[in-house]
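JOB MANIFEST
job_type = single_chain_structure
chain_count = 1
residues = 132
[input]
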Amino acid sequence: MKKYIVAFLMILGSVSGFAQKPHTAKDLLGKWEGKDSNSEVGGLFFLKNNKAILTARGSYSPAMNYTTDFTTNPVKIDLVVQNPKGRINIQGLLQFIDNNTIKFQLFPGGNRPGNFDPLYPQNIVILKRGGS
């Protein structure tokens, strides 16, 4: 009897794993907000045409371009800022926790690691769709 229960649980687990659809850039569209390690509210607006706006302390950045690579886990994201001095590429990582929550970390100095950097937990922010 115990074998049947274990087999049933294994089948159930594999079916639910196949039922989950992978996330795409379309799943990012919209407003995402959260609090950083200093309890400052901030977030991102992901717009159509690969544009994004950062928010922090009630201020908004100019619209910037972004690219994502959903073939990696966590997802690689690059925010491209145009300013009078030229083009700045800010690398980051994001991971969907669920459909309305993402884990997000930026690496302004470049050198994006393959995973979230636990040495800088203050740079990891949990963002909720529509607000915190």
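[summary]
The beta strands are 30-35, 41-47, 51-56, 59-60, 64-69, 75-83, 86-98, 101-107, 124-129.
Residues 2-19 form the longest helix (18 residues).
exit_status = 0
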